[in-house]
């Protein structure tokens, strides 16, 4: 009993010491940081760092504290950037200083740093290589556009088989999107009923959900937990499934690679790069980096684009007057038979504007992934030390009243000039911005435009109930819209020739 009492007292003393140390560090650092909600010693402000916390609390903090405020991840400050001008100044005007990442122990434990979200010195080299390789494969070119148009035809056929009855289009959209990134990475496009494709989509969704979960955050804050028996395997189960999926593709490509023939896909390009770099000491081009970056492209190329398309087709079903105007424009440009192509986008400014406005209201990522400072940086009256965590609050950019005439309303005119032509808006940061902008932005934009316009060319999309919902209600329900809402796809009768 006496030993137990001594251990209890020691434990209490240790906790008290940690508590006071954390309190002292927070108070010392808070004097040189933007203001923010008061942190709890040891814990920080954990409820303000989840996705739900960002959506719920950050609008209020933005109003109260202005263009920057500080929240805490345990004893580490996180500086949140608000509004277009502040975010642009950081991610574009000071792109190099704000382009680093903090550590993510859970992801780093199996990727060994070869991922888009990791802090490492070799990322700029891989970013250049991946962008160049994607262009060489055909991203942004006619070859991949033609594959996407054929995939759009398959998507239209699959939706027509629903016979106008209510259904959740998430699965079909996920199959179409997965097949495009599958063609880019692996040179494969699978049947929508293929169990391999279904399992892949399921594990990608679960992986993304896990990365955003509280258990992931707790393990990132206390990485020693990953050493507990089975815990790491449980938390990373879906992630490791995706890694194994890519490794299977890699093994097949190694067996069938023809050095004399043109590369078939991303893996072929990377394998040839590995061979080219094999004699260089310390090269980062090897099978591990190939596997991990391919896994990252696969995840990024499926989940966000599928969610965006699901939101777009569901919300447009609740906006019949907007949908009818889009369909008239498609009919005028392409008629009823020829599928819309990327060359038509310039002649379809209203359709393009509607897609962009839908994405703005979707606000899929209210905040970007954590950035970190590469060096000590003076920014808007503060001096932030190297390594400070930065969180760009993208919702505040997409609804910034200084950038949008009617930020809370659904208004395609935000993306149209006085002549009715499409105009790009710098504050349209749905893919983030700067050196950490999404690598697949051009691929995602192509898929969204081709699939959305192909579906509206062939179907009138309708809600499953007669009640129409306003845009505020639809935006409030966006998570449920993406996950479970149903629509009806009614084949359009013969229209413009």
From TrEMBL:
<keyword id="KW-0479">Metal-binding</keyword>
<dbReference type="GO" id="GO:0005506">
    <property type="term" value="F:iron ion binding"/>
</dbReference>
<feature type="binding site" description="axial binding residue">
    <location>
        <position position="438"/>
    </location>
    <ligand>
        <name>heme</name>
    </ligand>
</feature>
<dbReference type="GO" id="GO:0006805">
    <property type="term" value="P:xenobiotic metabolic process"/>
</dbReference>
<dbReference type="InterPro" id="IPR001128">
    <property type="entry name" value="Cyt_P450"/>
</dbReference>
<keyword id="KW-0472">Membrane</keyword>
<dbReference type="InterPro" id="IPR017972">
    <property type="entry name" value="Cyt_P450_CS"/>
</dbReference>
<keyword id="KW-0349">Heme</keyword>
<dbReference type="GO" id="GO:0016020">
    <property type="term" value="C:membrane"/>
</dbReference>
<keyword id="KW-0408">Iron</keyword>
<dbReference type="InterPro" id="IPR036396">
    <property type="entry name" value="Cyt_P450_sf"/>
</dbReference>
<dbReference type="GO" id="GO:0008392">
    <property type="term" value="F:arachidonate epoxygenase activity"/>
</dbReference>
<dbReference type="InterPro" id="IPR050182">
    <property type="entry name" value="Cytochrome_P450_fam2"/>
</dbReference>
<dbReference type="GO" id="GO:0020037">
    <property type="term" value="F:heme binding"/>
</dbReference>
<dbReference type="GO" id="GO:0005737">
    <property type="term" value="C:cytoplasm"/>
</dbReference>
<dbReference type="InterPro" id="IPR002401">
    <property type="entry name" value="Cyt_P450_E_grp-I"/>
</dbReference>
<dbReference type="InterPro" id="IPR008069">
    <property type="entry name" value="Cyt_P450_E_grp-I_CYP2D-like"/>
</dbReference>
<dbReference type="Pfam" id="PF00067">
    <property type="entry name" value="p450"/>
</dbReference>
<protein>
    <submittedName>
        <fullName>LOC100145084 protein</fullName>
    </submittedName>
</protein>
<comment type="similarity">
    <text>Belongs to the cytochrome P450 family.</text>
</comment>
<dbReference type="GO" id="GO:0019373">
    <property type="term" value="P:epoxygenase P450 pathway"/>
</dbReference>
<keyword id="KW-0503">Monooxygenase</keyword>
<keyword id="KW-0560">Oxidoreductase</keyword>
<dbReference type="GO" id="GO:0016712">
    <property type="term" value="F:oxidoreductase activity, acting on paired donors, with incorporation or reduction of molecular oxygen, reduced flavin or flavoprotein as one donor, and incorporation of one atom of oxygen"/>
</dbReference>
């Amino acid at each position: 009993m006496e030993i137990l009492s001594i251990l209890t007292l020691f434990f209490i003393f240790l906790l008290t010491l940690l508590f006071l140390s954390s309190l002292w560090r927070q108070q010392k650092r808070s004097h040189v940081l933007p203001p923010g909600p008061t942190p709890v010693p040891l814990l920080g402000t954990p409820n303000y760092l989840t996705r739900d916390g960002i959506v719920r609390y950050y609008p209020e903090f933005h109003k109260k504290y202005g263009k920057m405020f500080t929240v805490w991840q345990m004893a580490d400050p996180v500086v949140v950037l608000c509004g277009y001008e502040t975010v642009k100044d950081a991610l574009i005007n000071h792109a190099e200083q704000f382009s680093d990442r903090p550590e993510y122990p859970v992801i780093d434990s199996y990727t060994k740093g070869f991922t888009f979200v990791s802090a490492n010195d070799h990322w700029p080299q891989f970013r250049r290589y991946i962008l160049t390789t994607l262009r060489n494969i055909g991203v942004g070119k006619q070859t991949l556009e033609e594959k996407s148009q054929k995939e759009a035809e398959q998507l239209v056929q699959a939706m027509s088989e629903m016979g106008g009855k209510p259904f959740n289009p998430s699965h079909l959209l996920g199959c179409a999107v997965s097949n495009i990134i599958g063609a880019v990475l692996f040179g494969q496009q699978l049947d929508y009923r293929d169990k391999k494709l279904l399992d892949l989509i399921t594990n990608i969704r679960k992986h993304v959900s896990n990365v955003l979960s509280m258990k992931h955050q707790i393990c990132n804050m206390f990485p020693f937990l990953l050493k507990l028996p089975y815990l790491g395997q449980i938390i990373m189960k879906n992630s490791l499934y995706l890694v194994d999926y890519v490794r299977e593709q890699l093994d097949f490509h190694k067996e069938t690679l023809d050095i004399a023939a043109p590369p078939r896909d991303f893996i072929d390009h990377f394998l040839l790069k590995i061979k080219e770099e094999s004699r260089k000491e310390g090269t980062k081009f090897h099978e591990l980096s190939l596997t991990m970056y391919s896994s990252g492209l696969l995840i990024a190329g499926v989940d966000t684009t599928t969610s965006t398309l699901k939101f777009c087709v569901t919300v447009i079903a609740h906006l019949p007057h907007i949908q009818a105007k889009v369909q008239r424009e498609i009919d005028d440009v392409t008629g009823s038979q020829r599928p819309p192509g990327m060359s038509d986008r310039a002649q379809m400014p209203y359709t393009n504007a509607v897609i962009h406005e839908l994405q703005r209201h979707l606000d899929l990522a209210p905040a970007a992934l954590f950035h970190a400072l590469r060096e000590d940086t003076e920014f808007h009256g503060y001096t932030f030390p190297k390594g400070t965590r930065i969180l760009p609050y993208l919702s505040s950019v997409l609804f910034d009243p200084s950038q949008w005439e009617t930020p809370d309303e659904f208004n395609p005119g935000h993306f149209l000039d006085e002549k009715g032509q499409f105009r790009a808006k710098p504050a349209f940061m749905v893919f983030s911005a700067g050196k950490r902008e999404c690598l697949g932005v051009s691929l995602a934009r192509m898929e969204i435009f081709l699939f959305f316009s192909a579906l509206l060319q062939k179907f009138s999309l309708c809600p499953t109930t007669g009640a129409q919902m306003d845009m505020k209600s639809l935006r409030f329900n966006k998570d449920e819209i993406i996950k479970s809402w149903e629509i009806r796809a009614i084949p359009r009768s013969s229209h413009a020739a």
